[in-house]
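User: hey, got a sec? need Octaprenyl diphosphate synthase folded
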Amino acid sequence: MLSFHKAVASDFEQVNQLIVDQLHSNVGLVENIGHYLVEAGGKRLRPLLVLLCANALGYKKEARLELAAIIEFIHTATLLHDDVVDVSALRRGRPTANAQWGNAPSVLVGDFLYSRAFQMMVRIGDMDIMGILADTTNTISEGEVQQLVNAKNPDISEADYYTVIHKKTAALFEAACETAAVLAGANASMRTALRAYGYHLGLAFQLVDDALDYQGDAATLGKNVGDDLAEGKPTLPLLRAMQVGTPDQADVVANALRAGDATQLNAIVAIVETTGGATYTLDAARTQAQQAIAQLAELPDSDYKRALVTLANFSVDRDH
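Assistant: Yep! Here you go:
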């Protein structure tokens, strides 16, 4: 268990049980895929944010556990759909659900998880929370479509890239933090600050993920290295390499992106290293992490606040 999980370890046990309970379905395949995903583990960062923020604000009621499970269901649904769209075969060191059961069951179980999340939201009965999460799921979908549009296009700007990673990744981090603040009855200033914490933290995480795709190894990452290149994703390490590299280096990267040519991975990794593309990306992630921590200034000191700070630092000091 990572140190920032320890502050809410008992909450997490209850959330995990709630997730299992809420996966119940009369259709066996739904439960099989659902349990397969739950057993895969992962950092569970989004529900963790709900628990840390709610507890940091002194909110201890049962609804925080339900909200954490809701956020995890939304996230898991997006992963199921992502893996189909990206034709991914490996996640968290195991075959993806679409590799195991096929695309159609994966998409449909993703839909089940989305709808189960909204059923649970109705039980919480807070229109503010429902509004935030409805907007967030819409934003995530837009981000996925925009990423698809940007695929194999080496000419997008850094601003375009940041727009996509905000919508795809940071939006749910934002929502996890803000909905916890709403649940706890926080004032407008605290709600805005925690939302901003989630925004910067989410960007930091995605920036590091994108850097690791050209620095890590499959065993550590739990996914195939070079997947981003095979999908023609113009991530920041590549954008930076094309921006500051020689014309020949920029052409190699651009052509590999246009073709989605993962056979060029070794050459691309060498160019990213030579041009400092990964370092540039990690530096940007560190800036985002520090901006996240700055948003916690108004939060009362507690183990939960310290865990939020530790989590922000972990976001840029990790290898997976």
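Quick note: The first helix runs from residue 3 to 6. Let me know if you need anything else on Octaprenyl diphosphate synthase.
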